[in-house]
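Section 3.1 - Work completed
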Amino acid sequence: MTSDEKLAQILLSLQVYDLGDIKKARNANSNIGAFILCSCFIDHLSRYRYYNSIKTDKDRFVAFANHYLPSFTGNGTDLYYSLRSALVHNYSTKGHYLLAWGERSIHLKKMDDNRIYIDLDELITELELALNKYWAELLADPVIQRLAIAHYDAYPIITQMK
């Protein structure tokens, strides 16, 4: 497979499998599942973007959130511990963020106890924008391309057979 074919497969995976499954879960009102998939999507994207240049899952996730998710700039660590770690492994948000859906206006609003709402639909929109930003950078930067292809070579994407 050529580098261009690998990049096309990566984009297909991120758009159709990752974001597609998030949207399917949201449309089916499987909102906690959609949040979990959002967390996995951030983790997945961060692995392509920072493969072998940042060593730990946490540090890749944080770097990605701080660079590609403007609403969470400077809060990548809190997002990691709330969304990726606590939510994926314990169905909890570890207190810093509260999960919400169906009310976009409360996205990133603080509660009296300083916890912050994350609205699922707003998060999905941010993830789409993050993917677009990452993809533009990937196409323009051979170093980012090499990282993505190296990750692809180490962890080939599951593909659908017709």
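Second construct:
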Amino acid sequence: MTSAQSGAPSPESEDARDPLRPAREKVIASIVLAAGASSRMGTPKALLDYRGETFLNRLIRVLGAVTDPVIVVLGYHAAEIRAGLRGAAPSNARFVINPNPERGQLSSLQTGVAALPPDTQGFAFIPMDCPAVREETVARLARAYLARDPEMLLVIPRRGENRGHPVFAARAIAEEILALQPGAQARDVIHRHIPHTEYVDVDDRGILTDVDDPAAYRHLLESLP
């Protein structure tokens, strides 16, 4: 008896009802970079409110819908951020500490990459500055990553001429990031692989959000729907 005859949903119908399901069947992790001092903001950005959630709560939830685990890299204010999360952290969230956050964002990304599970086939990463990316955008990026040509190592959202976050990357990119020397930037790896990058055009201003100071935070709250 087929699934249609028995009344059980077919795999195709399940995927149609749940567009995130294909992403859950692959081993894709994600990394949230939350180790910065937030010195220009004057308070930890991870705990700022956006639509009833903290920045960090929201990113864990949105990324956690299509990736597992969500690795959160903490550094400055680590204890305050852990204590300030609203509710218990989801089971797929893992927290790691960057022992040298003063070295900048690359050191946090390297800390997160080093914590990827051995069976991780791909990963996404996003800084805490970008809390407003839409759930459907992240889901779309995950599907594009899974459906990409094997030669494509990166899947990056784009709005107009501007590229944003989160970036989805193949495992090979992780090794290149770990090999970067202090003073380098992750964009050095990204630029190296422009011919092996798939851009996904989205109408989502959230991929470009950069909340660094109180003025940018006010703009976020006033400008995004």
